[in-house]
Amino acid sequence: MNNTFVILDDLSRNYTAIAAYITCFISAFINAFGIYLVLTESKQEMPLYKNCLVFSIIALYITKTFYGVCFCAYSLLPFPGIISYGILRNVLPTWVMGGIWGVLLTFYLQSALAILFVRLLIVVRHESWFHFKKSTIVFIVFTYQIILIYFMCFMAVKLDFTKEEMQNLIAAKYPKYMHITEIYGVLIVSYTSSQVLFLGSVVVVAVILISTHSFVRYAIYYEIKMQVNKMSNTKRKYHLKMAKDFALQVLCIATAIALYPMWTIVTNFLPNDVDTTVFTSIFHTIFVGASIPGTLFMMINNTSQYGRIKRILRIQKTMDLNVRERCNNNQGFPQRCWNAVGEKEDLKMEDNAK
């Protein structure tokens, strides 16, 4: 059996942390702009829906920023372990940071479910079986989050191994890598039973997520279908589009999140001498920036928000062309010309707004 792991040849990988920091920095601007568009370009939506949407964007960004900056866990498979490159690697055990990240993720999952229930409240009939009281919905959403928090903490605790336990595993199976346990942030999964319980908890969480979201989505589409004669065609198409758009937005986020775990499963079956560093780093960066595709999809696929983006780009393009043209006619004072034209353009925009 080949007990030489190419992926363990170099564990410095500062570029992994740098890529995660840059991704979080870019994500901050994109998500901030997305929140701005939600608050300014969703005037026909009820305030509760907008607040839930804003909370979901913030919750996912905080979750991914904590992962990318503080945790930054990197899979060492097919070697049975992970290593943290986050800024808290010398402060908190890896399994604790994993548990904190899991709890933070439940807030996004809670907000996503809350958004679906709000859309259900908008379209549900009073006599319908799906017409829940707001207090009932609050109870369901928070119970849902508590269950998820329990399983997240359970999974984290199952990865709590002492240094002696990790050293015993390395000494028995991979004696040439005994130095690995001295590196800060390294977590070795020592027992097969713990791996089974961990994977089993992942399956349970996935089943809870899929079943709950599928039920509420079915209720939304069912209620819209039952109101064909009561709801105008325009309104019905609008509600169907909003439900479909949010489903696709969640799908974009879920795909970005799932790529990295799926790749780690694949690497577990690869030969030890295969260097998976490049692809692991790519999927890890996508995982950290999972909020970006969801927010971009929301901004592009929402008619009013995309219209605002086009207006901003068109105005800026027109201003730049006018400034260049006028400055070319006054080449002796290019900087003064730019400032003067910029002020005139601003005044022109204010007049148009009025």
From TrEMBL:
TM stretches of this protein: 18-39, 51-77, 97-124, 136-157, 196-220, 246-266, 278-300
Domain of life per record: Eukaryota
Entry-linked Pfam families: 7TM_GPCR_Srh (PF10318)
Keywords: Membrane, Transmembrane, Transmembrane helix
Stretch forming the signal peptide: none
PANTHER family, per the entry: SERPENTINE RECEPTOR, CLASS I, SERPENTINE RECEPTOR, CLASS T
Name listed for the protein in its UniProt record: Uncharacterized protein
